[in-house]
Amino acid sequence: MANPRRPNEFLTEPYSYPWEHPANADGGSVEEKLDVLTRRVKITRVKYVNKTGLAEHAANFATLQVKNGATVVASWTTDSGSSASDVSIPADTFIELTLATDDADLIFAAGDVLSFVVAEAGTTTVPAGRVVIEGIYI
Q1: pTM above 0.90, yes or no
Q2: Do residues 89 and 63 make contact, with C-beta atoms less than 8 angstroms apart?
């Protein structure tokens, strides 16, 4: 069974926020504020996809982040000098961003702002893509 049901899943209310971001070629950082949470949410998964993919590189790379204020909730980088888990993004294939290791960083309180950041280094152009942020209300 590929995706077994989590215990007591029927007792939880899911949270999902899909967002299509435009291409970014300015070589800087763009932060988009996506949602103001109305209730407490714990982020459980962040998926990302774009049609053309993005190769890893030491100087020309992109970093994708989901943030709660200054707190990084999930991230991915195509910097070839970073950890082995963050690498190139294959074309038209969902990847899962790496979640923060501290559970407290995954929790948004009512009124917190969910944002998505695309940061580019060098001459990287991040093509238009889609991020899907999933969680549960707690």
Answers
A1: no
A2: no
